[in-house]
Fold this protein.
Amino acid sequence: MKAKESMLLGAHLGGLAITASGTTAVHALSYPLGGRYHIPHGVSNAILFAPVMRMNRDACKERFAVLSDIVWPERSQKSDDWKVEHMIQEIEDIVSFMRIPASLAAFNVPKEDLEWLVDAGSKVTRLLSNNRKELTLDEIRSIYQTVL
């Protein structure tokens, strides 16, 4: 019962955090994956998280550097570029540790659906508008290509 209570509290706090922060391109590009291929939203978010952060790198560099300094103060002398790449690598490591696939191939998403994904993902403008960087269709395509 204690574990269930802890999970309930964690889910509640996660919902509060998302509501207060607003979601961005990771969630926007995940929606077509759930709708068409029935990939759980959290899994598709995990798959897309690092590729989207790589695309957002320049728009988020200072924020990533501040976060890195908070989490790893002993690395504060590193360059902002190093900190960003390290943060993204940490995301990839967590996804791998959790045994979440890095590719949509595990869910039988055909590469031939790339243009459909780009079109569908680019239409989730209520979330894309929250993204720190305005993503072009080519950038959205690149993100999906990374995980296909």
